[in-house]
Amino acid sequence: MMDEDSTVHGILTGDFPDGYPNTDHVATVDTAMAAPPPSPLAPVDLTDPAQVTGVMEIAARIGEILIFSGSSNSDARAQVYLAAASYGLHYCHVDIVMNTVTIHTNIGTGAKRQPLTVVRSARKWTINFTKLSAVDRLIRSIHTGFTPPSVAEQALDDIEAMKSPRTIFTELLGWATMGGAFSVMLGGNVFVAMMSFFVAFAIIGVIIAMEMMRIPPFYHNIVGGFMAVVPAAVVYNIASSLGLAFSPSQVIGMGIIVLVAGLTLVQSIIDGITRAPVTSTARFFEALLSTAAIVGGVGLGIQFSDWIGYPLPPLASMSAPVYYEVPLLVLAGGIGSAALAYACHAAWKEVLISGATAAAGMLFYYFVVIPFGAGVVVASGISAIVVGLAGGLLARRFHIPPLITMVVGYTPMLPGLTLYRGMYASLNEQFITGMANLVTALAIAGALAAGVLLGERGARRLRRPKHFRPYTAFKRIGRYSVNQAKDLAAKAQKIPRVPLAPLAPRANRPELPPIQGPATAPEDTSAVYADASPTSQWEVQTNDRVFDETWPPRTTFPAQSWPDEEAPTVYTSPGTEEFIAQHAAADEAKAAEEEQGEATSDEEMR
Prior knowledge:
elongated; membrane; 3-stranded antiparallel sheet; single chain; cell membrane; ThrE-like_N; mainly alpha; 606 residues
């Protein structure tokens, strides 16, 4: 058994020593939704309010971390209940509304009935995949019965105090790499990619500084939208004066994707699909408010650029990519998604798997959906199904939370460029075109949410098929002879059948234990033991090792019936000490009656 320090270290790092119970390739949320947890190895005292409240606090703290890591309402609720039920608290009610976790239960019965309620509120919305993976391992450890409540509390304290594995500079490099890769995916060249790299670095750097000053996120998006437009407009005018080709729309679209990547728009739609309307409405309103802030920032940047004399060019029509450009676009989407996972504090294994998931979705988008003439909304939805399916299978294979691959996988398909086109058209007196683009962007977000959720649910129900080997049994039989099989069958331990009633039929009685040593019986012993009682007869036969046709080894069970008294309730085998002790009183009574009868007959004869 592992000690507490080894258990906490394994939960935080994923490096469990030998002896940790092996788990199948299933996600934690699959375990929570598929079956109830096993009986706890060391359940808490469910009549003690302090212990029950401690278990509820552990479950609520787990739900808090899941919520501000981006988990959907239904998944977080299922995992919170799994943590509580694994300690024996099956009869509890879990409710999650927006960022508040409420757990209620009752202990005791009758007049001693006592209600208990625990409420936790998530402080802020921050995507931190390191804490998400650690709490996922904690839930698995609790479910397997390997982590008592005291160790779980210590692990939660360490998870909440866990420092980021990335420095601020490396985190900014991850966001900048994401911006440069996504600008190439949108059709930019090397110059556009370099410009996008520095713009993304500056946007996230300013946002981090504003977070340290505790400025509300609404103003983060306004400043981010403004910073995505002004540098692109300035560089475009300078490049045009020098005769260089530069498209500012890719830079602005990249900036919008960087800002939208951390929003809750897709998660809010997922909550609505999974029947959490209150949470979905709250998150959707928050996402709309943040999107409105981005729109305001972009519009402010466009007007400021016109005011300082660096106007943006009119929007050009978007053409489909040429076939030889598709591999580069797929590679750019995968690299950008991997960089996003890295910037969100994911481990290297999670970074690689997330990048592969996004690349699979982009590959399907360009090689399968677009060539058949599907629209951008339909193509995004179908590709999101592939992202959810591939990400779910890879996440279960490598034991990482499926939320990581799901959130990162659909990021390259976010409608950043469509949002910019809608904003630009609306600000330049093209209201119908602008509204059409904005509605298209909202439809793409809905298609992404529906597709990725459907694919992830499909991955939950897929299992590795068993291999069909029809000749395996014949090969196994040929490995040993028939005599060896008989010897193995003879050596196998057999469980004797216990009769179901005191007067069981002869076919259902247990067989007597074998008698050790040789047994030589006389030719005729029926007359010798004809007058003996069943118990004394068995004693004589056992001592003399004599059996005949009158008293064979398999006798009726029990040896005699009790018509005038209640049958014994304890089953015993003939010949054992329990059997002799149980029937001794009956034999003594019968012997006393016989002696009394003989004495009476002698007196009558006299």
